[in-house]
Amino acid sequence: MSISKADIGVYGLGTMGSALALNLAENGFRVAVSNREEDWIAPFVQEAGDLSARLVACGSLEELVAAVTPPRNILFMIPSGAPMDAMLDAVLPMLDPGDTVIDGGNADFNDTRRRSDTVAAAGMHFVGMGVSGGETGARHGPSMMVGGSEASWHSLRPILESIAARFDGDPCVAHVGPDGAGHFVKTVHNGIEYADMQMIAEIYGLLRDAAGWDAGRIGGLFQGWNDTELGSFLIEVSAAALQTRDPQTGGPLVDAIVDRAGQKGTGRWTVIEALKMGQSASAIEAAVGARSWSSDSDLRDTASGILSDGALNGEVPDEEALADALLAGRILAHAQGFDILRAGSATFDWGLDPARIAEIWRAGCIIRSALLERFASASRTDPPHGALILAPDLADTLARCLPGLRRVVRSGVALGIPLPALSAALAWYDSLRTARGTTNLIQAQRDFFGAHGFGRRGQEGQFTFDWPPLGQG
Ligand code: 6PG
Question: How far apart are CA 398 and CA 394, in angstroms?
Answer without folding.
Answer: 6
